[in-house]
Amino acid sequence: MKKFTVFTLALVLSVVTISCKKEAKKVEGPQFSVEPKTVTITWTGYKTTSKIPVNGNFEVLEVSNIKEAPTAVEALNGTKFSIPVSSLVSGDADRDSKLKQLFFGVMDATVSLTGTVNLNEDGTGTIDLSMNGISKAIPITYSIKDQIVQLDGKLDIVNDFGAQAALESINTACLELHKGPDGVSKTWSEVVISATAHLKKK
After folding, report:
1. pTM of the model
2. If you placed Cys at 187, which of 29, 37, 39, 171 could pair as Cys (CB 3.0 to 4.6 Å)?
3. Contact yes or no for 191/157 (Cβ under 8 A)
4. Best CA proximity match to 69, nearest among 151, 152, 144
5. HSE-CB of 93 using CA atoms within 13 angstroms
6. What pLDDT is attached to residue 28?
7. Residue 88 · residue 96 · CB < 8 Å
8. Rounded to whole angstroms, how far apart are CA atoms 155 and 78?
């Protein structure tokens, strides 16, 4: 009887051990992560009452909190970024100087634009963006194709970030340049932003 009990106990332990080993050998799928050097951000502002677009981008972008995850969305979620406003370029050196000094320079503590990416599974999400001493969740949409991610959003400099003084400053500096055929000078508070990135997959 004693031998039978010992045999039974040994058998049970063997089954438990084998089961645990099987669980430990779960097959993992592909892992995704953001490639920082591939991330680009472009912006579009508007001038004149006809809403003529003015395009530009930022040449420097620091990305952090990068991780590997089983899905692209999980890999992107929580990604943080910091963009020095001094890296702004629009193809016009005079405009760039005015935007850096008379727009961002008028804002409160805006040496860099900082934020965090938060995505849902349905192609929507937000960017928690900090500018002019204010943090705001900006709604965005996104698409993922062949490991290329594109995010698009729109913010309002005045309503979202209280930057009326900055908007008036740049409009005054560009008073003549922002006049349309109607003779009215206007700088819009709306700014469209787009970002793209390539995801590593292994």
Report:
1. 0.82
2. 171
3. yes
4. 144
5. 0
6. 67
7. yes
8. 20
Residues 6+ apart with CB under 8 A from 28: 70
> What confidence tens digit (pLDDT) does each residue in 151-201 have?
999 999 999 999 999 999 999 999 999 999 999 999 999 999 999 999 998
- How far is C-alpha 48 from the chain's CA centre? 29
- Note the residue count of the chain: 202
How far is it, in rounded angstroms, from Cα 8 to Cα 11?
Answer: 5
Question: pLDDT class for 10, splitting at 50, 70, 90?
Answer: very low
Both structure tokens of 5: 């009990």
Which two tokens mark 59?
């040449």
Token couple for 143 = 């698409």
Backbone region of residue 118 per phi and psi (left: phi > 0; alpha: psi in -120 to 50; beta: other values): beta
Tokens of 151: 């995010």
